[in-house]
Amino acid sequence: MNDITIYHNPACGTSRNVLALIRNTGVEPTVIEYLKTPPDRATLKQLISAMGVPVRDVLRQKGTPYEQLRLGDPAWTDEQLIDFMLEHPILIQRPIVVTPLATRMCRPSEAVLDILTHRQQGAFVKEDGEAVVDEEGQRVAKP
């Protein structure tokens, strides 16, 4: 049984790195390309609740209609912000990963290492060249 789900955007480098880190454990997650298959209201609310973050923390600003919709206005309620995310899924920050340990927004990508139940099977270098996991599958300490 698959126990990891990633809400993924293949056009996003962070999302690609997170997916690759999950696969580096030898596990193939359930991949939901949320721009093609957006979560419904109940699922989105459950994800936000499970992450334990304010709804605003799940809003993506860069490359979205965030500014034109004036979503920075504090007058918008959580329900209204969720309405916007459902109408414009690009507003959902990514990637969101669900594992048996936790549900987390995995930014930066190495944040996924904290919620994986399987060990890394080898070295991993992010697309930008930053080493994240060494040959023994251990997290590389940041200088």
Write the layout of secondary structure elements.
Layout: E1 5-8, H1 13-23, E2 30-33, H2 41-51, H3 78-87, E3 96-98, E4 103-105, E5 124-125, E6 131-133
Parallel strand pairs: 1-2
Antiparallel strand pairs: 1-3, 3-4, 5-6
Arithmetic mean pLDDT = 96
* Low-confidence regions: none
Shape: elongated
| Biggest β-sheet strands, sense, barrel | 4 strands, mixed
* Continuous helix count: 3
Kindly report the name of the CATH homologous superfamily: Glutaredoxin
Strand content: 5-15%
Q: What is the share of helical residues?
A: 10-25%
Q: Which characteristics define this entry?
A:
3 helices; 22% helix; two-stranded antiparallel sheet; single chain; 4-stranded mixed beta sheet; Glutaredoxin; alpha+beta; 143 residues; 6 strands
Can you describe what's shown?
The protein is α+β, with helices and mostly antiparallel strands. It has one domain: Glutaredoxin (3-Layer(aba) Sandwich), CATH 3.40.30. It has 3 helices and 6 strands. Strands 2-1-3-4 form a 4-stranded mixed β-sheet. A hairpin with a 4-residue loop joins strand 3 and strand 4. The N and C termini lie far apart (38 Å). The relative contact order is 0.21.
Short description:
The chain has helices spanning 13-23, 41-51, 78-87; strands at residues 5-8, 30-33, 96-98, 103-105, 124-125, 131-133. It is an alpha+beta fold and 143 residues long. It has one domain (5-133): Glutaredoxin.
